Structure formats: C-alpha cells, structure tokens
Amino acid sequence: MKRKITLKQIAKELDVSVSTVSKALKDSREISIDTKDKVKAFAKLYNYKPNNIALSLKNRKTKTIGIIIPEIVHYFFTTVIQGIEHVANEKGYNVIICLSNNSFDKEVLNLEFLANGSTDGFILSVAKETQQKEDYHHINEVISQGMPVVMFDRVIDEVICDKVIISDKHGAFEAVQYLIDQSCKKIALISTVDYVSVGKLRTEGYQEALITNDIPINPELILKIEDVDHSEERIEAFFSDKDIDAVFAVNEKFAVNAIKALTKLGKKIPDDISVIGFTDGVVSKSFIPSLSTVNQHGEEMGAKAASLLIDRLEDKVHEQSFQTTVLNTSLIIRDSVKRKTDSL
Amino acid sequence: MKRKITLKQIAKELDVSVSTVSKALKDSREISIDTKDKVKAFAKLYNYKPNNIALSLKNRKTKTIGIIIPEIVHYFFTTVIQGIEHVANEKGYNVIICLSNNSFDKEVLNLEFLANGSTDGFILSVAKETQQKEDYHHINEVISQGMPVVMFDRVIDEVICDKVIISDKHGAFEAVQYLIDQSCKKIALISTVDYVSVGKLRTEGYQEALITNDIPINPELILKIEDVDHSEERIEAFFSDKDIDAVFAVNEKFAVNAIKALTKLGKKIPDDISVIGFTDGVVSKSFIPSLSTVNQHGEEMGAKAASLLIDRLEDKVHEQSFQTTVLNTSLIIRDSVKRKTDSL
DNA sequence: AACACCAACTCTAACGTTTTCGTGTTGAAA
DNA sequence: TTTCAACACGAAAACGTTAGAGTTGGTGTT
C-alpha cells in the first residue's frame, strides 16, 4: 500500500524545500529548468496529485456544489441533477448530493453540515415539510454567511436568492386550454394539497384556463390528494360518481392512476375521456396509451441553476440583485388525448 | 454578511488562546468551569461550528463516501443511492455522487479527483465502456493507495475488493423456470450484448433453466441488443416471424417494448404470450398489464455496500479477505404472466 | 574593491483545527 | 520556608498547500 505522495515527501527525496517543489510543479520561473525537470519527473513517477482538502483549506473554496433535494427516486429530480452535474463538471466543480427525504430536520442538518466548509454554494429544492412549516431560517442562515444559494422547482418567495422555476401556472393553463380546444368541457383536476407550491400554481393555471373560456369552476371536479401513497383508491372513489370528459393531473402518478381508475370504471382513454399529466417521465412515454404531459425540462433547469450559482461563486454577477429564471414548459401530446381532428 | 466564526476569532474576543477555546468546547477538564461556560456561551451565540475541511485535513479523513455510477436517470441506481445514503447518514458519513455517464474517461477523472483527499472510500458500479475496455488500472490505483472500494451490480472479477451483487443468473433462472412451470415452452430472450456482465449472467440463467427442463436452446429466440435507444424497432422486427409463448427480458425497458411490439402484432398479453422483465421500476408497477419482474432490491444493495465500506473504513474488518455479498432477487408476479391456475 | 543585481533557491505565514508538552500560579504538606 | 502536586492555561507542531518575503552566491559594472 503506497499512500499518496505529498510535496513534503518529494522535497525530502530530492533534497530541496517544499516551496521549491510547489513552484517547480507550477512552472514558476523562480526555479531553474534543471530543478523543474527533476521535480516534474519525480512527481510524475510517483503520480503526485495535490490534495484537494489542503487546497480547499488554503483557498477557502472547495469547488464543490451542494445539492439538496427532497428525494432521488424521482425522475424529474434525477434529470435536474444530470443538468447540474453536466454544467458543474464542465466548469471544474464537483457535486455533493444530500437528500432531505422531505423532512425539515434532515434538510436543516444537511444544510448546516455542508455549510461548514464542505461546499461553496447550494442548489436546492425544499422539502414538503419545510414548505408546510414555513420555517426558512436555515436557508437564510447560510445565505447570510455569504454562501450563494439557488433554489429550483419548489422555491420560497420569502427567501431572497436566485431561483429557477418553470411556469407551472402557464404550463397547466396551456394543458387545460388544449383540452378545451379539443372540445372538452367537463375537466377534472387531480392536484396536491395547497402548501406544495407547485400544486397550488398548477391548480391556478387550471382555474384560469376555465375562467378564460367561460367555463364555471366546479369544486366537485377538483380532487386534492394529501396522502400520495394511497392516491389510487382516492382517485378511484373520486371518479365513481363524476361525469367528465377530461382529466388534468398535476403529476405523472396521478395521471396514470386516473387512467387506471377510469379504465376500471369502463371508460375508454382517450375516446371517452382525455388525460394530460405533468412531468414527462419514463412512465409517460411507455404507458399505453402513452401519456400527454407538460414537459418540465428538468435537465435544462439543472443546467441553468448550476450556471447561475457558478456565476455568483466566481463573482461574475456584481449586483446584489437576484434573478428568477422562468423556464417554459412544453406540451407533449401523445395518445391519451382525443384530438379534435381525430373525430373527423 | 457575517462570515462563519472560527476558533481564532473566539479566542481573540475572549482574550484566551485558541487551544483553550478548543479544549473548552470539547469539555476538557484542563479548563476551569468558568472559562468553559464563557466560551460555550460565546460559541453558541455566534453559532460556532467547526470547519469540516480543517477537520478533514487534520484527521486525514473526510467522513465522506464517493459514489460513482454510470447514470442517475435510472430507477435502479437511485434506489441504490437511497440505500447508501440512508446507512451513510446514520453512521455520520456524507455522500458525494459522480456520474460517469458510461464513459471510461469520465470514470477515471472522477475517481482520480475524489481520491485526492475528497473521500475516504468508494462505492461504484463501473461504466459500460470500462467493462468493454477491460481497463481497471484506475480502480486498482485507488485501492493500492489504501482507499477501500466496494463495487456493486456491475462488478469486475479481476478487481480485488468487497462486492455486492444480486444473483443475476439465479434470478433469471427462477423467472424462466416460473414461465416453464406455467407450461411455456417457446421462451424468447431479449438481452444486452455480452460485455455487460449482468446481461451475460442473465442470459446464462435463461439457458440453464431451459437445459434443466430439457428444452433445447434455440439461438433464433435470443435477441441481443447493442443500441438501447433503438430497441423498440429491433424488438418489433425480431418478433415478426417468431412463434413463441413467453418472453424473458433482461430489463424493464426491453420488457415494455416487447409487450408493445407483441400487442402491435396482434398478440394478447398474457393470454397469448407471457412476459417477465428484470428490475422492478416505476414502469413495471403502473404498466397495463402490470409487469412481472425480478426484483433487484436496490435499496438493500446500497445499504449493504455502505455498511461494508464503513466497516472497512473504521477497521472493523481486520482481515485482508474481501467478501462478495450475493443478494437474493425475488420474483414478483403480476398481470403480464398467464398462470397455470388461471386456465383451470 | 565596492557595489548592485540577478538567478535560484529557502523561510515563513496562512487556511482552521486538535493535541502534546510546557509553564506559571496556587495551596498545602513537610 | 521549602517542595511539590494540582490546576489552568498557552505555545507549538501537525495535516498539505501556496505566495510573498527573505537569503544566498555569483556575475557584472564602475
């Protein structure tokens, strides 16, 4: 077992000082060609690589970005990570990922831990519990310590920092508008409880689309699900006595469960009822019928978040002003929607 | 902007030495109660937290585990990460995730980078390209530097370290045996090319099951797919002229595409043809018909890998001997298989 | 011969922490 | 009064690195 070699060991071997070695390796012209060659050869031979930790301590920067997300077993988040990772690596940054598991306490711990020198800045999407509690002291704390923070997807208006979001409201609006354009009139909504910001916004988009088209909002057609794990039963029960011709669901799971429930009730998708979901995941593509969705462009979101953060870290943004980037969604129409032209 | 406070600053404020502050905070009995109280109060007030980087440098350990995986937008890997994260956090370790994107070069870079002080050890699943190249010098390099490595899923026999795998062969065997038990005789296999170790092993399991049951192996019924992205067309073409009563696919995507292709060809699943896939992902559960699969227990795998690694890091394993943990798969039978009893 | 100057180094401090060893003050036993 | 332990604290080194400020010894100028 040959431990990693250090400058000190090289210096000792070659009988020069540590600083000579350091400078030689950095091609400083304080050092003679001879010595440089000797040092470089030796370093190469022993595969010398500077110790990151020591560099971090010295430079007071780690070249590492901390990502804190609610969960990782989730297609959207993984695409965001992919986007972050790509940009970060390109610019010489590394990525530490921590999961909050939607727990406020774990989010606080992660943030505190990573803030103690491990990372230069954060990209985060807050836990459900945090949104519920409305306690953001931990985020404000790290910001006040001078660490840049970029929030994405589930952002907090009260926290002042850069943000990247999609136009949830507009995406939902477009989806519902599309359904209306296909002559749907009785459109049900399956959403989450309101403290989840995205759920709320998508609900607003749904409502706005109805209002714009002079369709009255019928609260009977709106289902808000608290317990995601048992959504299937809830949705099934919900549909049993409803007369509808379309469903807009705020996520993929709800959309799939809606189709399942409706199929059970003897409805044909898309002939009897059209369905559009949110988030374009693996399931949407492969499901039969393939699911129409609002694409969130997770990778783009991650890339944007990463470059915002890195710009701050490298002081490319001089101002104190923070920006909120709103990414456009795009509607992907697949087989779960009955198109108007289909009936021609 | 109040920067994080350091021992030195506390010492200066309270007019004592740095060592006194350090000792006071650690409740050393070298320090008087009075001083301790004073220091602790001050530290609390200014929310002092020791700097991880400095600690890492001093202790020569980072309490961080490096995970290197081929891709993150992949259900199985996210479950493994989940398992690792859980165990690691419980034991006070943090997790850095790097993606190789199945590229050999990126895997090497990641490994080199993280090995220079950033992590204490690695958990990794090698890139496809690495398996193809059969070049493992980078992994052996970090091992020889004294960093423990645990490989999972896609492991390399030639690299000597702890490993966690599932019984790919046996899982495949069981699945195919199950199909045979349901009276299937003409079972097709959709696999990957052989240099992907898991594809090879699952193929072997398939073959062994046939042999055990005196069913001749028909190469015509075996499809090996190189280009995963265009698997759908390949599978469709493959099935067009085959007479079969069951399909075993080595992953979820192939299984889904098989069902789609067969449906297109007018076959009914499971009535005409039964299908079993590998990996129990989101798609399997929600697909219609829901997919029978071999469950890989990713979370368990991650948990096991993490505890193996941490045991090594904390010298709980004295021996030089490395172990390979083989986790059992379990067969999940859902609607995509026609059961024998169904026909009664 | 005195001086300046340059090349080619070495020394030192610094990043934030812990730990070993040293040291001055007290109070009590001899 | 001397001696010595106990107490409470400080100094310094160490982890690995870098950058700026010294330090040599030799050459060239006048």
From TrEMBL, chains A, B:
Stored InterPro entries: Cro/C1-type_HTH (IPR001387), HTH_LacI (IPR000843), LacI/GalR-like_sensor (IPR046335)
Q: Which residues form the HTH lacI-type domain?
A: 5-59
Q: HTH cro/C1-type domain location, by residue? A: 2-53
Keyword Membrane included in the entry's annotation: no
- UniProt keywords, alphabetically: DNA-binding, Transcription, Transcription regulation
Q: Name one Pfam family in it.
A: Peripla_BP_3
User: What PANTHER family does its record include?
Assistant: HTH-TYPE TRANSCRIPTIONAL REGULATOR GALS, LACI-RELATED TRANSCRIPTIONAL REPRESSOR
Know the name of this protein?
LacI family transcriptional regulator
What species was this sequence derived from? Mesonia aestuariivivens
